[in-house]
Amino acid sequence: MQRVTILGSTGSIGKQALDVVRMHPDLFSLQGLSAHSSEEAFRVQLKAEHPRRAVFSRPMEKPWYGVKLRFGQEALCELASDPDTDVVVLAISGIAALTPLLAALRAGKRVAIANKESLVCGGDLVKKALEAGEGELLPVDSEQSALFQCLQNGRREEAEKLILTASGGPFFRRPREELRDITPEQALKHPTWSMGRKISLDSATLMNKGLEVMEAARLFDFPGEQIEVLIHPQSLVHSMVAYRDGTVMANLSVADMRLPIQYAMTWPERMPSPAEPLRLWERPELTFFKPDMDRFPALRMAYECLRAGGGCPVVYNGANERAAELFFAGALGFLEIEESVSFALDRFRNRPMRDLEDILAADGEARRLVDEFQKTRRSK
Ligand code: NAD
Ligand code: MG
Question: Smaller CB count within 10 Å for the chain: N or C?
Fold first, then answer.
C-alpha cells in the first residue's frame, strides 16, 4: 500500500491524481493534500477525501475542523517530507514547486513530478538531492513519461536522439502577424489537451515546449544537441527515442494525463487505468512537422538557455511566468510574452546558480525585467 500526498490538488493534474488514487483503493491511500488558491474547491476536497494532513497557502477565511490543516510555505515543505508519505505527486504550477520538491527528495520520497518549472530552474540542486539520498523522480509530463518509457528499451549510450512531440498549440498554422491580437480566451483553447491556465498559454506560445526541452535535458541528462522537437498536432505519439541502429521507439496512447500520472506512481508495474484504449484505425492520420526556429523564438531561446546554463533557464522561466500573469491581466499582448522573455535574457548577466537563493534572486530579476519591458511598451 502506497501512502500518497498530492501537492496542488485543486489543479488539473491534482484532480486527476486524486482520480487515480480513488480508482485503486487496494494500491493507494490518501495521506495529504495541498492547495494555494480556490479555498472553496479545497474545502470540498477535504470534506470528500478526508486526507490525514492538509496544507493551504494562507489561513482560510472560514475555520475548518475536519482535518489537521496547516498554512504556509514551511508547512508545505513539511507535508512534502511527511514521514507517513511514500509518494508525493507534485502538481503545483510554477517555480513555487521547487522548495517542496527539494524537501520531498531529501526526505527520500518517490516524487511523481508534473511540475516542469522546478526542474528547469533547480537543475543542479535537484540532481544533488537525488544523488545524496533515497529520493526518486518519476516524470508525469506526458512527453517525459513517453521518453522515460522509450528509454527503457536500450542503454543510455545507444540512444541518439530524444524526440519530443508538440501539438503546436492552437495557432501553429497561423502567420505570426495574426498572433499579435490573440486574447487570453483564444490562447486557452488547446486543441488536444484540457489543462491548467498557465500551461495552456505556454502551449500556445510554445514556451511549454521550450521548458520541456530543458526538462528532458535535466531528467535524462542529455545535451540540447540530442534533443529534437517535432510538431505532431494529433497528440497521440507522446514522444520518441531514436537509437543508433536506426530504430525509433515511440509511445502512443489517447491523450489522458491519468495514464502517465498512474505510471509514475506504480512504476515499474503497469496497472489497469481509466484511459480509453487507443483505436488507431479511427484516427488514421498521424502527421509530423519540423518546427521553424524563426517562427517559434520560444524554442530557439530554450536551446540557447540550455547551452548557456547558469541562471539563463531560471530567467527564461521566471520571465515567462511573469509575462503570463501580465497577459492574463490584459497588460501584455500575446507576442509580447516571448518578446519580454527575450528582453529579460538580453539584460541578464549570467552567473552560476550555487544555491536556492541564487535561483530565487535570478527569478526575481527576470520578473522585474519583464515589468520594465511592460512599462516601456505602454509608454510608447
Ligand atoms: P493548475 O493551475 O490547474 O493547478 C495548480 C495547482 O497548484 C493548484 O492546486 C494550485 O492551488 C497550486 N498552486 C499554484 N500556485 C501555488 C503556489 N505558489 N504554492 C503552492 N501551490 C500552488 O495547473 P496544472 O495544469 O495542473 O499544472 C500543474 C503543473 O503540472 C505545471 O507545472 C504544469 O506545467 C505541469 N503539467 C500539467 C499538465 C496538465 O495536463 N495540466 C501536463 C503536463 C505538465
Ligand atoms: Mg507536456
Answer: C
Q: Give the atom of ligand 1 at the shortest distance from the alpha carbon of 12.
A: 26
Strand partners, 34: 7, 55
224 C-beta neighbours (distance < 10 Å), count = 16
Q: Which of ligand 1's atoms lies nearest the C-alpha of 16?
A: 26
Report the nearest-CA residue for atom 9 of ligand 1.
Answer: 8
- What is the edge-to-edge ordering of all strands in the sheet holding 53-56? 68-71, 53-56, 28-35, 2-7, 87-90, 110-113, 136-139
pLDDT tens-digit series, residues 257-313:
999 999 999 999 999 998 999 999 998 899 999 998 888 999 999 999 999 999 999
Mean of pLDDT values over 174-180:
89
User: Which residue has the CA at smallest separation from atom 24 of ligand 1?
Assistant: 196
Architecture of domain 309-380: Orthogonal Bundle (1.10)
- Ligand 1: residues with CB < 6 A are 8-14, 35-37, 57, 91-94, 96, 114-117, 141, 193, 195-199, 257
Q: For 196-233, write each residue's pLDDT tens digit.
A: 999 999 999 999 999 999 999 999 999 999 999 999 99
CATH superfamily, with its number, for domain 2-139: NAD(P)-binding Rossmann-like Domain (3.40.50.720)
Taking alpha carbons only, the member of 251, 300, 313 closest to residue 116 is 313
Task: State the distance from the centre of ligand 2 to the C-alpha of 59, rounded, in angstroms.
Answer: 32
Question: How far apart are alpha carbons 319 and 342 in whole angstroms?
Answer: 9
pLDDT at 31 over 80: yes
Ligand 1 centroid from CA 2, angstroms: 23
pLDDT of residue 119: 98
